[in-house]
Amino acid sequence: MFKQLRTNKVRTFPADQERADIQIHKQNIRDFQLSLTNKIEVSTQLTLNNTKDYIHGDNSDIIATDSQKNTVYVLARQHGIETIEKFALTISDHFLRKYCHVTNTQIYIEEAPWKRISVDGQEHVHAFFFSKEAIRRCEVTQERGEKPLLRSGLKEMRIMKTTQSAFRKFVDDEFRTLPDADDRLFCTVVDSWWWYNSVNGVDFTKVWEGIKGIVLDTFAGPATTGVFSPSVQNTLHLTVRNVLSKIPQVEKMEITLPNVHYFGMDYNKFTKINLKDYKNEVYMPTDKPSGNISARIQRSRLSKL
């Protein structure tokens, strides 16, 4: 998706949009023809220093969305894509250097990796299956003459545990109908962003994999025993606290954990069927999350006297 905005001091004008997917294929001949492939989607948004195309019909400063799309493909060819963060920084830098009338850039990239197929316990050298267990993403915004602002994140990571989750002793007034739950299914879809205190020398892939692992470890706990969660809120807080304590490059983190409920099926209404002798537990999912639990937490700074 490519977007171009023009702004002045008074108003912001709408923009056309275009979408493009990029398939990046890299091959290492020295490593038994081992190939790597990733699928990314890039969105570019440019702000210009004038609105003459809107007001006077003068298109001389328009960088067409098709040209923006072509630019991304050319830069991918020229630079490759080591990480989506570095590629987003490259795109932003290019537009600001190339066009003096561009005052601001906003580059958004999503990555959904292909995973190597395993055959007889060995990873295949050139065959993959598409996996969306978590979507990696990043966004760069940059004003002309200023340093780029970079954030990374993950989304659409659905996780669940079947026990060691509770929700009790919340507000009990005339509007409450939800009972206390001492042991419940805990299902959510992780959506998170984090901001860096510096982009210099950062191994973005290592940070992304590290944060993903921390989210999963905090949620699940040890493999044989698990960990108890008194609420989604507490699990969210512990997750961000663990990220900030273990990943020094992260300055702040925002995370949203929606409640995706699974309720035990009520079989009492099936009066003509004897189901009392059957012990299988069956749960019915809700169509949509009932609520989003979210927070943004950042490192504290000591005041200077």
Automatic annotation (TrEMBL):
Keywords: Oxidoreductase, Peroxisome, Purine metabolism. Gene3D superfamilies: Urate Oxidase. O2 binds at residues 65, 259. Pathway: Purine metabolism; urate degradation; (S)-allantoin from urate: step 1/3. One of its GO terms (molecular function) is urate oxidase activity. Catalyzes the oxidation of uric acid to 5-hydroxyisourate, which is further processed to form (S)-allantoin. This is Uricase.
